[in-house]
Amino acid sequence: MPDHRAYLTELKMTFGSALRRHRIDCGLSQREMSAIHGLSQNVISAVENGKNNVSLSMMARLATAVDSNVPAMLTATK
Known about the structure:
Helix content is 68%, strand content 0%. By secondary structure, the protein is mainly α. The chain is globular, with a radius of gyration of 12 Å.
């Protein structure tokens, strides 16, 4: 039986890494992204580092902020 926690950790890390790459590709710092999209810099940092459990709606909001979508960010390679 697969380890549920390990799988969730992998998904959080994959999404976070993709968010960081896309944010940088968009030319945004964490501070700029937080100011533009009304999120705290701490939240963005925690998501990028796989430290936060993020709701599907927050994932969609973050993905849209960096011109992407949730499925693409969850299947991104590191």
